[in-house]
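Name: ABC transporter permease
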Amino acid sequence: MSFARFAARRLGEMAATLLAASFVVFGAMYMAPGDPASFLLAGRSASPEALASVKAQYHLDEPFLLRYGRWLGDVLQGDFGRSITYRTDVSRLLADRLPTTLLLVAMALLVVVAAGLFLGRLAAVRGGATDTAVLVTTTFAVGTPSFVAAVLLQGLFAVKLGWFPTSGAGEGFTDKLWHLALPATALALYLIGMLARVTRSAMAEALDSDHVTVARSRGVPERHVIRRHVFRNSLGTVLTTGGLIVSTLLVCTVLVETAFSVGGIGQLLELSTSTKDFPTVQAISLIIVALFMAVNLVVDLLLPLVDPRVTLGTRGAAA
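Structure predicted for ABC transporter permease:
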């Protein structure tokens, strides 16, 4: 299968999945117990006329499929509706908060990739006591949930030592980096351990392969063997894990942003869920699903370029 054909097929699958996800996201509002109009009124009693006005404003008096079609048409034009809690357009809320979340995820991903690959490579190449130390360290990291790491890091480095701010996202790019340093570390800790273990296992398997033995028997310098034959052949497994890592970062950012009051879409999702701000919850949920699928698409397209043993349309090495 050609690259263009494969990419077109994956984009079509992504569009179909997004359409199905949008139906589920929109319908979830109406699966909640009670009348949606009562949630919109925040539990306040209202006259039949006021209730009818609310239903007309949010098109609750129309058939479900018609409401869904109207909402989907607005979403395709970038209109996610109006926030019930904040009394403003959801699109404006997302435009204000999404860049902060994306910067936080990017910082955490950079930390995960740098530390995870370094520790995994170090453990596989050195072995012995170094391998044991890395395994113990990564076991601790994997066993520490993001919200626990957030509380520990905030208590030590922000409250006790005062090296970092306790909350907020800062103003300006440099100030944002300083404010998001602790949240990014808390977000990355668990995933550093996971990536380090995956890298170590993939490189250890590559070290035992026949072509590595042949390269060493021919006198190829060890550093070239590690770089060209071991680490490179492990990148396919690492890249596949990278898709899971980015997806996990997007999910865990809700907890970390709430702990540090970062003000991104993760914290907004938590607040909107608790206040039953359905238009905002629907918009953020759909965006997170779209980001998940975009990450998987990028991984699928890059995997054959990184690992020639993988053919388009499959994940995993050829036997």
